[in-house]
Amino acid sequence: MPTVREIEQSLYAWAPRDLAESWDNVGLLVGSESREVRRVLIALDVTDWVAEEAIRCGAELIVAHHPVMNCTWHKVQSVVDDNAQGRLLTKLLTHSVSAICMHTNLDAAEGGVNDVLAKKLGLEGLSLLNEEKIGRVGTLKCEKSLEQFLQDVIQSLGCQGLRYRDGGIPVRKVAVGGGACAEYIPQAIALGCDTFVTADVKYHDFLDAEGINLIDAGHFETENPVCEAVRAYLAERFPQLELVLSTTHKSVIKYYM
Ligand SMILES: [Zn+2]
Question: Which terminus of the chain has fewer CB atoms gathered within 10 Å of its CB, N or C?
Answer without folding.
Answer: C
